[in-house]
Design a protein that fits this description.
Chain lengths: 118, 132
């Protein structure tokens, strides 16, 4: 399943609304990098509010998306990580230290705005 | 009726199927949201390990009742290559596939009980329990 990527001014917005299988996660990675390239978007917000679990594979893909977008010059903010998901990620030993995060999509857009991306 | 489902892991999509079976079982047994996430995450890790290293195999999710306690038991069984060094596989960050190496040690921390039985050339059985 293909996850839609929306463009808002100089930003790309992704809201993951499906049960994330491995293929869809990898497809998102590819589509997003391509879209950053096409649009020269300075920032990306990935909203994870609907995910009730993130395992080590999905976490790795998300971390890779953050690093790869960074290399291209686009800043990623992960938003809306649920309490239960934060707890299980840390119990798995995964901290996503390199990722910018925000409590919700709105705050994510705000963070990017403050760093000059809007 | 007690819950029991057996999900064969024969393709990548079965990782999602196993996860969904676990989520459903955890909800039916009234686990809290954090334990639900722990259970689905643990199942996802174990199912992916079967998919990556030892396909085909099975994930069995079942309700258990012992000494007045209720729990959810996950069994991940395969007849794959087995794990040569279990101690190493239990270390954070150990991976032979470029993963995060968080699966096996992570499942141990996420669940209340954990055991792993593996024999090279014969396969691996991981059993993990979360008590209600
Ligand atoms: N069912 C299995 N059969 C054979 N080897 C396995 C199995 N599960 C795990 N392993 C081995 O243990 C290692 C650690 O697994 P894990 O902690 O899940 O990390 P990762 O999957 O990211 O490598 C794997 O890289 C693999 O070599
Ligand atoms: Mg693994």
């Amino acid at each position: 399943m293909r996850i839609p990527i929306l463009k808002l001014n100089n930003l790309l917005l992704v809201s993951i609304q499906i049960e994330l299988d491995d293929q869809s996660a990898l497809q998102l990675q590819e589509d997003l990098l391509e879209k950053i390239h096409q649009t020269s978007a300075g920032g990306v917000v990935i909203d994870l509010t609907s995910l009730d679990m993130i395992d080590s594979f999905i976490a790795k893909v998300l971390g890779d998306i953050v690093s790869m977008s960074g290399l291209m010059g686009s800043k990623v903010v992960l938003t809306g990580i649920q309490p239960a998901v934060a707890i299980t990620l840390v119990e798995l030993g995964i901290y996503l230290n390199d990722a910018n995060t925000a409590i919700d999509l709105e705050k994510g857009i705000e963070i990017l705005g403050k760093s000059g991306v809007q | 009726m007690t819950i029991k489902s057996n999900i064969p892991i024969i393709s990548e999509w079965d990782i999602v199927a196993a996860r969904q079976a676990g989520r459903e079982a955890a909800k039916k047994m009234n686990f809290g949201t954090v334990d639900q996430a722990r259970i689905t995450t643990a199942i996802s890790e174990l199912a992916r390990n079967i998919f990556l290293y030892a396909m085909p195999g099975n994930i069995i999710v079942e309700e258990i009742h012992e000494n007045n306690k209720y729990g959810l038991k996950i069994t991940a069984a395969d007849q794959g290559p087995g794990i040569e060094n279990i101690k190493l596989a239990l270390e954070d960050g150990y991976t032979t596939s470029g993963g995060l190496g968080a699966g096996v040690p992570g499942v141990k921390r996420l669940m209340d009980e954990f055991s792993i039985d593996s024999e090279v050339g014969r396969g691996t059985v991981v059993v993990a329990v979360k008590w209600l």
